[in-house]
Amino acid sequence: MTEKTMRPSTYAIIEPEEASKLIYENVAQVGVEEISLLEGNGRILAEDIYAIGDMPPFDTTAVDGYALLWEDGIETRLIIGERTAGKVSDVTVVAGTAVRIMTGAPLPSGANSVIMVEDTSEDNKKLIVRKLPQASDNIRPTGQDLQAGQLVLKAGITLNAAELGLIATVNRPRFQAVRRPRIAIISTGDEIVEPGEVAAYGQIYDSNRFSLVAAVRNAGAEAVSLGIAPDTREGLKNLVERALAEYDGLVTSGGVSVGKLDLVKDLLEEMGTIHFGRVNLKPGKPLTFVTVEVDGKRKPVFGLPGFPVSSLVSFELFVRPALLKMGGFAELSRPVLQVRTEHVIKHSPERNEFVRAIVTSHYDPETSNYWYSARTTGAQTSSRLLSMLGANALLKLVPGSNEIAEGSIVSAILIEQI
Amino acid sequence: MTEKTMRPSTYAIIEPEEASKLIYENVAQVGVEEISLLEGNGRILAEDIYAIGDMPPFDTTAVDGYALLWEDGIETRLIIGERTAGKVSDVTVVAGTAVRIMTGAPLPSGANSVIMVEDTSEDNKKLIVRKLPQASDNIRPTGQDLQAGQLVLKAGITLNAAELGLIATVNRPRFQAVRRPRIAIISTGDEIVEPGEVAAYGQIYDSNRFSLVAAVRNAGAEAVSLGIAPDTREGLKNLVERALAEYDGLVTSGGVSVGKLDLVKDLLEEMGTIHFGRVNLKPGKPLTFVTVEVDGKRKPVFGLPGFPVSSLVSFELFVRPALLKMGGFAELSRPVLQVRTEHVIKHSPERNEFVRAIVTSHYDPETSNYWYSARTTGAQTSSRLLSMLGANALLKLVPGSNEIAEGSIVSAILIEQI
């Protein structure tokens, strides 16, 4: 055991806004890669996508029915052929004739209207028409949906079902997307034990790493768990170096407090640039942000506090936006609602406190307006992970007083759907 | 080419509510499996999780500092030892003494208060105290966060960062979760071509399958693309049989319209029970729902229309809730908001029309109320996938009139975040 005297942190405490700015300025999009249509869900498009041709590429029918001349009116026609979508027979519609046509098939030449099968009957190759056809009825003209050369999707959008359908429509089986950041996750602390092993007296089970793997994935990144860091400076250094060599960034939990045996901050100080080491935040004050140059790349390390709630709340506020930026997402922020407090909330008079809460929506049918209320999730201790359960928002309570009255309006950062 | 006469569909048209009910009654949760903590994100818990012991398991400190007796007041103490979280030395605090203690370490016997390092200084094994300690300061008593035997998480909840942290905390490296439904996806139609190949005249590129793979994944299920179905009854039958033997359900697109060459409905009629074959819906009228008994299991087949928007809208309204139910999700519905239309909207006077729209929120700081407005995404043709782009809602327009006035209040189903 070292006999170094235990001393408080000497890092300046910065405001949350300053911390966000420093992180934003020091992380960058990780790069692009070619992917296939089946891999595209949730990815960020990294090139503009244009229509190569018109869509539909030919005049076609929107319904199953008969292609005919509207000028023939309601008179009975002779059925002279059939067109399905995939089998295109060469047939021309002339006065007094009609061609059976299936949805999506090219319109036969000559035809200028399509009548729905529901408005007809067939009798021995004769078509009986029960509704007066109009010019262009049920015809989808060439290029109605997309025109050749048209910009269909802009680089930077998030790909979902409709966007992927459009990329397929314009015949792009592979395309450029932003690579998902690959983030290593390490837990530190000689008191934590892998779940499944046996905790000795003084030990507890590691939980932060499993929470953080989920949180990283929910920020569109790949999460790789590197386990619990060894208890020695040398072992920790080797693991951190390997993580930074192989991955785009590193998230640690624990080891950033003021204790004399908290190795992480010391090590990171030696390896890279500490942009900040404390934030005026509750929970999450010891949050540390470091960048390390590795092979010419600046890689971020987020040192999160060890208490489970401190770890998750500081991840939510600071690491999530960073990972989204690295992954090319345009929108880095969660939605914020102004909500009315359902009860008195005690809070820190000195620090920006982020309180876990349940926001409920209320609708007034007379005015068609909505308002939102919020109640906290019980005891807000940093260690009490139960306070995150069911929470769909973090209420931001600014320093000044030490409580806010029932019915006050505060900002709620929505972390889940209401 | 068959010479079977083309005839309209004979399936009764049912209302959307009836269709939802029939689907709900005929799909069931697919079963459970054991998974690990690292696989848990987004999964549905399938067992109750209890605390095996107290958390914290011993009296501990919430801060780095010194364990001492509060009754000694502000007098200087002799430092007699040190406790880190993982290395527990056997030391007892008595009057006039203090023990260095790191966050999370068990409280040494005798101590009844912990003073933060920030409120102290050390001088040659002497501890100088600059703040009067109070009883129990900074002590986290045994069981403060969780008590042995306590129900921590109930079966049925969705697992996210906090929930997974709690499962780790109570030392459950593996646990029961609902299995993700495995859903096969097939496109049909002899006019569609795989992206990357060359479309002949009359052909277009398959897009629905790629959209549906994304949509199935977004409903918490596994999606397996089985390609474009062969153009023959025998080939289609073999593919559908294989899909139903290997997967929990099947989604097809195309082949459910009224055309005489639409093989899918005919085949499904032969293989299973058609619960409905048409819905009073725009877009999506030909939506078909079938169940087939395979090895004693009832497996759902959703026959979606071929037009891209019809396919995606009917998926959203009917297939998504079914997959969520199969996957064990408690909440099957999207949030619905009452919104004010920004302009006149023409719609079908006969069918329930679901119009793609962009909902915007408006905040009134005077009343702290919100209201929401909606505008459509342009031409609402069933083929025009662009009408899905940027849409965050589907407006439900009920039959009756053929337009709704600007400023009307309508229901908006939120399919994306506002």
TrEMBL record, chains A, B:
Keywords: Magnesium, Metal-binding, Molybdenum, Molybdenum cofactor biosynthesis, Transferase. Its EC number is 2.10.1.1. Its cofactor is Mg(2+). One of its GO terms (cellular component) is cytosol. Pathway: Cofactor biosynthesis; molybdopterin biosynthesis. It catalyses: adenylyl-molybdopterin + molybdate = Mo-molybdopterin + AMP + H(+). Gene3D superfamilies: MoaB/Mog-like domain, MoeA, C-terminal, domain IV, Molybdopterin biosynthesis moea protein, domain 2, Molybdopterin biosynthesis moea protein, domain 3. Residues 184-325 form the MoaB/Mog domain. One of its GO terms (molecular function) is metal ion binding. GO terms for biological process: Mo-molybdopterin cofactor biosynthetic process. It holds the Pfam family MoeA_N. Belongs to the MoeA family. Catalyzes the insertion of molybdate into adenylated molybdopterin with the concomitant release of AMP. This is Molybdopterin molybdenumtransferase. It comes from Candidatus Chlorohelix allophototropha.
